[in-house]
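Journal club side-thread
Mid-discussion, someone asked how the predicted structure for our own chain would compare to the paper's figures. Pasting it here so we can look after the session.
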Amino acid sequence: GEAHEEVVALDADLAVSTQSMKFGKRFPERFFNVGTAEANMMSMSCGLAVTGKVPYASTFAIFATARTVSSSGN
């Protein structure tokens, strides 16, 4: 975070468990807690990347994959 101002972190309400809170405490203006909205977090990450940011989306693997599958009806 110090060396690269374009780095941002997104978290799905698991900052304590994923340890992304460490980044959030040091760089609160570049930390986004999106709540339990993993699919939206992934979309936000894509949008941030398009604008030149380097997003790190943080959640548990099961939530990152299951939410997108269940929303498509599979």
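Post-session note: The beta strands are 7-11, 31-33, 54-58.
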